[in-house]
Amino acid sequence: MIPGRLILIAPLALVPALIACHSAPVAVPLNPAARAAVTADPGDTTREALAQSIDAVFTAPGAGETRAMVVWHDGKLIAERYAPGYDRNTRFISWSMAKTVTGVLIGMLVSDGRLRLDSSVPIPLWQRPGDPRGEITLRQLLQMRSGLRHVEGGDPPYLSDEVRMLFLDGRDDMARYAEAQPLQYDPGQKWVYSTNTAVILADLAARVLAPNGAPEMRRRAVLDYLRTRLFDPVGMHSAVPEFDAAGTMVGGSSIHATARDWALFGEFLRHRGAAGGVQLVPRQWIDFMTSPSPRESQYGAQIWLNRPATSGRPSLFPDRGPADLFACEGHLGQYVLVSPSRRLTVVRLGMTPEDHTDLVAAKLGDVVALFR
Question: Which homologous superfamily is 93-256 in?
Answer without folding.
Answer: DD-peptidase/beta-lactamase superfamily (3.40.710.10)
